[in-house]
Design goal:
By secondary structure, the chain is mainly alpha-helical. The chain has helices at about 35, 55-75, 80, 90-120, 125-140, 145-150, 165-175, 185-190, 195-210, 220-225, 235-250, 250-275, 280-285, 290-305, 305-320, 345-355, 360-370, 405-425, 440-460, 465-480, 480-500, 505-520, 540, 550-565, 570-580, 585-590, 600-620; strands spanning about 15, 215, 220, 325, 375, 385-390, 400, 525. About 60% of the residues lie in helices and about 5% in strands. The strands form three sheets. Strands 1-6-7-5 form a four-stranded mixed beta sheet, with helices on both faces. The longest helix is centred in the first third of the chain and has 30 residues, at about 90-120. The relative contact order is 0.14.
Length: about 625
């Protein structure tokens, strides 16, 4: 998967949907392009027309010159600027110039990253991406001083009238202060990232894209092979699992090296910055407190028996089995209605669902279809999974999918469009405050997915169709909550043990199997060959401890949606205010208008109870 931190300067707020929980379609690829209709490919010309674009080269030159001039004018001068006038107008001018440069550089980085994500196997795209990373790193090194020096200003600077618009950004910046290093060391960390962590991320991306898995004599890439894990035929599911296992095992030494290297890299950075816990850096980036995450994790782990264990036992019964082999976990129901959903129909379903909630929400989503802001086809060399990348406020987001016409593909599209709507609305905050912490970034996407699910459910006239929709939603929720927390627990053990020395492939497999058994329960039998499946999870490589944001967002939205259903009047206005806030407000402040408090441990139990009630309904159908 793409390392979104390198797609542009807003990359930390870009959102990707894991290929594990929900971007897989329910069977093999649809038979023929004709069934899907014309699938859109994105038009990146709103960023730049091509890598050789004169505009791009001009922006690169302006960015370089602007950064150099900014450094010359302001380095070592911020304290003087802060005291130059009573209202802080001189300091405001510096912040606005800094923001303008960030937007320009972010546009270049976004273009390079999106071009690369669309075809990671193209040497010219890979070279352009690498070249742009190097040049942007060199340019942005000149800007490093600004935030570091700004944090050395006295707290009284927060009261200057002229800069109140940027107060949320400054307050967020202040939270980083205890973990800042000297300017020289920060510059060293920044410059070496291109040949360190970024290089290992790129190695993972290009290796995973290049892997081929044999299915019925055909060599497939990762995404379509994963799709077979949801094929109606158990034989094909097992074949896919065994093929995945064989190729992962052949490459496990490389993935073990990548994992050990990046975990050590993180340990070094954490130690120098004074982070106590292995996940504290992620919590800080997410603007969420460690006890809140600990409460979420504890609530989910406590709910395993009531949620995932119970559901998989029920599913085993549906499939006529005592237990499910791990390749049966995502098998379709035996009586599930099966059809291919054309692209135009998927568009109509989602826009109708969004429109029932808010015409404004539907109008924004429609823009993505009308203006080719979506890249939908499965292509050789294309990044697997799905994401919505915000680019920069002066442009607009872009969505990448691998659409194959199944109901889960529709839900994935609804999910990413939720991100897109959020990113469009947040753009009004500007380059410094539009980016949203991961914990809040998933809110709009999961909400949009829930709207679409409820729309489909209301239209289900047959019991078998309703059962299939409920089961599909429960599986998505389990994959988004229980499975992601299991991933989080896997990462915790890996990073804690890496502090004591390298982990072998065998040890990584042991940890993986332990957390999977705990989360999946006794109804799922982990057969031999499942041991190396840890190695292809992209979040472990690109964004350590990212995964709990999925569970955070799912449980939060479950509670939020309950408020919507109970008191619809005025909800949409408050919801849009929340999205427009971008990263300018803490999650607690954003949830307060809805009467929700994520710091209350019972909050997470409330979100989990939504999943339990859906399982209750499925169980009731058996009687």
């Amino acid at each position: 998967m793409t390392d979104f931190r390198l797609l542009g300067l807003r990359g930390a707020a870009a959102t990707e949907r894991s290929i594990v929980p929900s971007s897989m379609s329910e069977s093999e690829p649809a038979d023929g392009q004709a069934q899907l209709g014309v699938l859109p490919e994105w038009n990146l010309a709103d960023l730049y027309s091509s890598p050789e674009s004169a505009t791009l080269k001009g922006d690169l030159g302006k960015g370089s010159a602007g950064a150099a001039d900014f450094q010359k004018r302001y380095q070592g001068q911020l304290e003087t600027l802060a005291s130059m006038d009573d209202d802080g107008a001189a300091l405001l001018a510096a912040i606005e110039t800094f923001e303008e440069i960030q937007d320009r550089l972010g546009r270049i980085g976004s273009f390079a990253g999106l071009l690369y994500a669309a075809n990671t196997s193209d040497p010219s795209c890979a070279k352009f991406y690498g070249d742009m990373q190097e040049q942007l790193t060199a340019i942005s090194t000149k800007l490093l001083f600004f935030e570091l020096e700004f944090n050395r200003l006295p707290d009284a600077v927060l009261e200057l009238p002229a800069i109140q618009r940027y107060r949320p950004w400054i307050e967020d910046l202040r939270k980083e202060k205890p973990h800042q290093l000297s300017d020289d060391i920060e510059r060293l960390f920044h410059e070496k990232a291109i040949s360190g962590r970024a290089a290992w991320n790129r190695l993972f991306n290009e290796t995973m894209t290049g892997l081929r898995f044999e299915m019925d004599g055909e060599q497939l890439s990762l995404e379509p092979t994963l799709n077979f894990l949801m094929h109606p035929s158990e034989g094909k599911r097992r074949m896919a699992s065994e093929s995945l296992s064989a190729v992962f095992s052949d490459n496990v030494r490389l993935f073990t090296l990548i994992t050990n290297t990046l975990a050590k890299d993180k340990e070094i950075s954490d130690r120098w910055r004074g982070f106590e816990d292995v996940a504290d850096a992620r919590h800080l980036a997410n603007r969420v407190e460690r006890p809140v995450v600990d409460a979420l994790v504890a609530a989910v782990c406590d709910a395993y028996p009531r949620v995932s264990h119970r559901y998989y036992a029920l599913k085993a019964k549906w499939l006529g089995k005592q237990t499910l082999a791990h390749w049966d976990r995502n098998a379709p129901l035996p009586d599930r209605p099966s059809r291919t959903i054309a692209w135009n129909e998927a568009e109509d379903i989602i826009l109708d669902a969004y429109g029932d909630f808010s015409n404004d929400m539907a109008d924004i989503a429609k823009t993505f279809f009308d203006k080719n802001w979506i890249d939908a086809p499965v292509r050789e060399g294309k990044s697997p999974g799905a994401f919505s990348h915000p680019t920069v406020p002066s442009a607009h987001p872009y969505i990448l999918l691998n659409y194959q016409g199944k109901p889960r593909d529709v839900m994935t599209l609804a999910h990413e469009l939720g991100h897109g709507v959020h990113q469009v609305l947040a753009n009004g905050q500007g380059a410094l405050m539009a980016p949203t912490p991961l914990t809040l970034a998933e809110t709009a996407s999961v909400f949009g997915e829930m709207l679409t699910f409820k729309k489909l459910l209301s239209q289900a006239s047959e019991p078998t169709e309703r059962k299939a929709l409920l089961a599909s939603k429960v599986e998505d929720m389990i994959n988004t909550v229980a499975r992601q927390i299991a991933f989080y627990n896997f990462e915790r053990v890996v990073h804690l043990e890496r502090r004591k020395g390298e982990l072998t492939s065998e040890r990584l497999a042991e940890i993986w199997m332990d957390v999977q058994r705990e989360s999946l329960g006794p109804a799922v039998e982990l057969k031999p060959g499942y041991e190396p499946f840890w190695c292809y999870i992209p979040h472990f490589i690109h964004s350590p401890f990212y995964v709990y944001a999925y569970a955070f967002g799912e449980c939060l939205v479950n509670s939020l949606y309950a408020v919507y259903e109970d008191a619809n009047e005025g909800f949409a206005e408050k919801y849009f205010d929340m999205l427009r806030a971008g990263g300018s407000k803490h999650y607690g402040e954003l949830m307060a208008p809805f009467g929700l408090d994520a710091s209350d441990p019972e909050f997470w139990s409330l979100g989990l109870s939504v999943i339990e009630r859906l399982i209750d309904e499925l169980e009731a159908m058996e009687h």
